C-alpha cells in the first residue's frame, strides 16, 4: 500500500464548539506543514488533500508568498552581475512606480487590472507613452523571470500591449551647426575639464557613445591603421571596470587629421595615464575614490563630473538651442547613411544589437533629400503650376 503523504486533521475553534479541517504534510524540503482549510466540509477537504498529495508526488512547488518589494529585492540579488546596472535601475524605478500605483501587495494577487491601473497612473503623472512602454517592458521582464523561477504561475503583464507613441524625432546637427560647434570648442576650456574639442571631433568621426569615449584609452588607438577600438575595461591598478553596451566590440575609422590631433594631444600632456579624455586631476580623484571603495560600476558610465552641463555651455557658445551630446553620434551615423553606407554597415559600426534600432532612430530625413524631392515635384508638375496658383482666386 502506498504511503499517504498528506493527512487530514481537525482543529477545534477557540470556543471549542466547532472545528475546522487542516492538511498535515511534510514538504519537499523536509519541513512539516499544517495548513488550515478554513472549513469543516469533509468532502471538499478530501479533494483538497488529494490535490496536495498529487502536487507532492509530482514535485510541484507551490509559489512562495512575497510582496512586490520582496520580489524586486530577490530578483536584483539573483541577477546582479548578469545584466547591466542600468537595467536593474530601470526595473527598480518601474517597480517603485507600480507599488505607488497599486500598493505593496502580494505578487500572487497582481493581475492584468493592476497593469491597467499602473499605466493610467503613469500617464496621469505626465509620463510620455514611450516612457510608459519602457516601464511596462521592465515589469513584464521582471514578472517573466519570476514565472521561470517558479515564483509565479503566470505573468500578469503578459497581455499588456504597447501604447501608441509618435516616432522619436532624430536630431541631426546641420553642416553650419557642426562648424559652429567646432569653432566653439576651440575656445579656451577649463584646465580641469574635458577636452571638448577632441571629444566633439572624435564623436563626429566615429559615432561613439559618451560612455565609450570617456572610457577610451590610448591602448585602444592604432595610429598606423587609423582606427580606434571600443573594448571593455578590466578593474586594474590604473583602469576601472567598464562594460560595452550590448557587449559589442567594434573597430571604427579615424581620419588622418583626427589621428594627428590625437597624437598631438598625447605628446603635449606632461602626465600620461591610460585614458584619453580623462584629465590627470580627475583621474587622481577617481583613483582616490577607488582606493576608498567609493567607486562603482555605475560611476564608470560617465566618469566626468557635470558632463551635460559642460556640453550645454558648448551648445550655448555655438548658438544652438536644444540638443544633447548624443546628437553628435546621430549626426555621424546619418552622414554615413547619406554617403552610401548600407543600413547593415551602419548597424555594425554603431554597435546596435538590433537592426530595428538603426532603422527606427537613425534614418533621418536630411535637407539634401528634401531638396531633391522638391526638385522632382517641380519637374513633374511643371513650371506652369506656379503661374496657375498665382491666378487662382483666394477664398477666406
From TrEMBL:
PROSITE patterns (alphabetical): CB (PS51900), TYR_RECOMBINASE (PS51898)
Domain Core-binding (CB): 66-147
Biological process, per Gene Ontology: DNA integration; DNA recombination
Gene3D superfamilies (alphabetical): 1.10.150.130, Intergrase catalytic core
Pfam family, one: Phage_integrase
Family annotation (PANTHER family): INTEGRASE_RECOMBINASE HI_1414-RELATED (PTHR30349:SF94), PHAGE INTEGRASE-RELATED (PTHR30349)
Protein name per UniProt: Site-specific integrase
Organism listed in the record: Anaerobaca lacustris
